[in-house]
Design a protein that fits this description.
It contains 13 helices and eleven strands. With about 325 residues, the chain is an alpha/beta fold. The structure holds flavin mononucleotide.
Length: about 325
């Protein structure tokens, strides 16, 4: 039997010269993977943080909530700041703006399927322009002193699966790692992720490939690693309401008391970060996911989703802990 490797001392992989001490990474998820949630996931075992996508021009101008999107804490390192863009000059400018925050690497989003992004030639639209995609990465690699990584999907649609060409071109342009979500842009989040396609990418390039799509349980982690040959696995939706996935614990393995304690911690962290009012409003998206597998889930969700005060949320968490079988009546 092979001796187990201590990933605290021996990295599982390197993104350029950045060691990654663990095989699971929280996926960037706009609206969910903010600083408070990433910090929790990182503590529970996520080996790195990637900030949710920010538009290049937003980052340069500091518009909207772009500063919040790229904000990260010291315990999250290594951290990749993810940028969306299609224009070489603007992307470079945005990456330079990001450098001021001293991330460990820059990740370029070439997978976002949202129409407002892809209709303007950004995100997943770059899958239709492999040459341009490679040119953008080449320009960033040349301009930046830190590694540049890319997150892609399998192609625009089932008729234009070009993930091998994309991966090889991106590697040729200097990408230090490639995350592959095993779906096309057209699929959005429907169907199932094609892990065999991710395996083909891994065989086609020599930089680390991070496998992504449909990992929800501890068994799924082993299964995607086996199917793709990738050590690094990125987990998105399966971590919402269940950050313990990064400690390789399934939902059934987390006692109610621990679940309630995590909800309190997460709620407190969000209020501390966003302020009481906004923290309360934003936590709702998470609270309804912490109860997703419980009996009476609909009633718990309704109650948590409509709680309007901090005391109201805390009382519901208390009730969950003490009487999980007794959700409040509507
Ligand atoms: C609400 C939401 C927001 C997302 N935002 C981003 C994003 O900002 N950047 C990105 O690269 N992918 C984003 N994704 C895609 C995820 O990173 C991931 O690729 C996808 O959810 C598949 O992984 P999963 O099956 O583990 O969820 C988002 C997904 C969701 C559900």
């Amino acid at each position: 039997m092979q001796a187990a490797i201590d990933t605290r001392t021996t990295p599982v992989a390197r993104i350029g010269d950045v060691p990654i001490h663990g095989d699971l990474i929280l996926a960037p998820m706009a609206g969910f993977s903010d600083l408070p949630f990433r910090t929790i996931c990182r503590r529970l075992g996520s080996a790195a943080s990637v900030t949710p996508c920010v538009l290049d021009e937003g980052l340069v101008r500091g518009t909207g909530r772009s500063h919040e999107r790229v904000d990260f804490g010291p315990s999250e390192r290594p951290v990749g700041i993810q940028i969306i863009g299609k224009d070489e000059e603007r992307l470079r400018e945005a990456a330079h703006a990001a450098l001021a925050l001293a991330p460990d690497y820059i990740d370029v989003n070439m997978g976002c399927p949202a129409r407002r992004v892809s209709s303007k030639g950004r995100g997943a639209a770059l899958l239709r322009e492999p040459e341009r995609a490679a040119r953008l990465i080449g320009a960033l690699v040349e301009a930046l002193p830190i590694p540049v990584t890319v997150k892609i999907r399998l192609g625009w649609d089932g008729e234009s699966l070009n993930y091998l060409e994309m991966a090889q071109r991106l590697e040729g342009a200097g990408a230090a790692a490639i995350t592959v979500h095993g779906r096309t842009k057209e699929q959005g989040y429907s169907g199932t992720a094609d892990w065999a396609a991710i395996a083909r990418v891994r065989e086609a390039v020599s930089v680390p490939v991070i496998a992504n799509g449909d990992v929800r349980t501890v068994a799924d982690i082993a299964a995607i690693q086996e199917a793709t040959g990738c050590r690094l696995v990125m987990i998105g939706r399966g971590a919402i309401g269940h950050p313990w996935i990064f400690s390789r614990r399934d939902v059934a393995d987390v006692p109610m008391g621990e679940r309630a304690a995590m909800m309190r911690e997460h709620f407190g962290a969000m209020r501390a970060y966003y302020g009481e009012r906004f923290g309360l409003a934003l936590f709702c998206k998470h609270s309804v996911r912490y109860v997703q597998y419980m009996p009476g889930v609909a009633a718990w969700r309704r109650a948590l989703g409509s709680a309007e005060t901090i005391e109201g949320v805390l009382a519901l968490i208390e009730r969950l802990e003490v009487h999980p079988e007794d959700p409040p009546a509507p």
